[in-house]
Amino acid sequence: FVMVSIAYITLLERKILGYIQIRKSINKVSFLGIFQPFSDMFKLYFKEFFMLNYFNMMIYLLVPLIGLFLSMYMYMSLPFFSVNLFFNYSILFLLSCLMMNVYFVLLMSWSSNSKYSYLSSIRMVAQMISYEISMFIYLLCFILLMNSLSIIDLSKIQKYLWMMFLMLFLLIILFIIFLSELNRIPFDFMEGESELVSGFNVEYGSSMFSIIFIFEYLNIVFFSIFLCLLFLKGVFYYFLFYIKVMFFMLF
């Protein structure tokens, strides 16, 4: 479900950008280009994989795969149809997983042995660490309010009133923090194309680049769901919930 959503999130983004720039967007592959993301995926996976001259091959290949696995593993903390009904420390588990992203960025840039990617990773890690501290403090407010470390209790305390109406200022701050964690505009400093080419992933291509791409968009979907659970009473079997998630993903 999440993997398919990533394909169509990218398609929707490119469609919206096309309409904003008053031009035709993707419309060649199938009807209105709905299979364009899958076409791009196959194109990337079947491109030739180039090996670098001086790099740590094992770390270079393993770290993106572990990062992808960890991003998928974070979804265990979400109460999908009460699957994790007895998972009482899901917020603590989530924070532990988020802290690992810094190491993946550093290891990917270091293993590729590129000055551009290493400089980009230093910039990116400094940004992530600085915003993570404030994010943990704000999430502590919810933990103290609920007197629990379970995400399931978030929907229980919002039975009659959404937290957005009580903590609108906190919603805006957390939204900005999540933008910085995900390196989205205007916090995309690590992709300084004038001096850092493409950022920490400049030496990755072919299937490895697509894995990093999926890893980043998995985090975007996760943070959007998490914000809905925090402030908008996320109930997974209501269609309105997915409309709210889409709103956060697009903005």
TrEMBL record:
Annotated Pfam families? NADHdh
Provide the leader sequence positions: none
Query: Is Transmembrane found in the keyword set?
Result: yes
One of the record's GO cellular component terms = mitochondrial inner membrane
Is the NAD keyword given for this protein? Answer: yes
Write the record's keywords in alphabetical order, separated by commas.
Membrane, Mitochondrion, Mitochondrion inner membrane, NAD, Transmembrane, Transmembrane helix, Transport, Ubiquinone
Query: PROSITE patterns given for it?
Result: COMPLEX1_ND1_1 (PS00667), COMPLEX1_ND1_2 (PS00668)
Q: What class of enzyme is it?
A: translocase
Membrane association type: Multi-pass membrane protein
Q: What GO biological process terms does the UniProt entry carry, in alphabetical order? A: aerobic respiration
The record's section on InterPro entries has: NADH_UbQ_OxRdtase_su1/FPO, NADH_UbQ_OxRdtase_su1_CS
Give the transmembrane region(s). 54-74, 86-108, 128-148, 160-180, 217-243
Q: Where in the cell is it found?
A: Mitochondrion inner membrane
Instruction: Give EC number(s), comma-separated.
Output: 7.1.1.2
* Catalysed reactions, semicolon-separated: a ubiquinone + NADH + 5 H(+)(in) = a ubiquinol + NAD(+) + 4 H(+)(out)
Query: Which molecular-function annotations from GO does this UniProt entry contain?
Result: NADH dehydrogenase (ubiquinone) activity; NADH dehydrogenase activity
Q: What does this protein do?
A: Core subunit of the mitochondrial membrane respiratory chain NADH dehydrogenase (Complex I) that is believed to belong to the minimal assembly required for catalysis. Complex I functions in the transfer of electrons from NADH to the respiratory chain. The immediate electron acceptor for the enzyme is believed to be ubiquinone.
Q: Which family, according to UniProt?
A: Belongs to the complex I subunit 1 family.
Protein name in the entry: NADH-ubiquinone oxidoreductase chain 1
What is the species of this protein? Answer: Callipharixenos sp. DPM-2011
